[in-house]
Amino acid sequence: MSLRLSLPAEPLSAREARRAVSAWARSHDLTEHLDDLELLTSELVTNATVHGLGPVVVELYDDGRSLRLQVTDSGALAPSPRLAGTDDDSGRGLMIVAALSRAWGSSVSGSVTQVWAELALRD
Known about the structure:
Order of helices and strands: EHHEEHEE
Distance between the termini: 21 Å
CATH superfamily: Histidine kinase-like ATPase, C-terminal domain
Strand content: 25-35%
Radius of gyration: 14 Å
CATH class: Alpha Beta
CATH topology: Heat Shock Protein 90
Strand order of the largest sheet: 1-2-3-5-4
CATH architecture: 2-Layer Sandwich
Number of strands: 5
C-alpha cells in the first residue's frame, strides 16, 4: 500500500482526501496522472460520504504499472451508475469514474462497501 487515510463521513473529507492523494502523487513523480487521480478521489470519497457511513477509508496502491484507488465506508449500499438528467445536480460520479479509469468495481460485504478504480501508468 502506498497511502492510507481514514476520514469522517462529512463533505470536507473529499477535499482532504484529494489533497493527500495529490501530495502523494507529486512526491512520487506521477503528476501526469494528477488530474484524473484527483477527480477519481473526489468522486469516490464524495459518494462514500453521501451514501455511506464513516469512517471513510481511502487507500492508494502503486504496483509500478497501475494505481488502484480504493474507498471503503460502513454503508451497505451497492453503487451503480445512473443516467442523470440535464437538470440534475448530481448522479454523474460513477459515469466519470468509468470514463477515467481502466477498470473500476465495487463490493458489498455485510455493512461494508468498497469501490475501487484503476489508472494505467504504463501499458
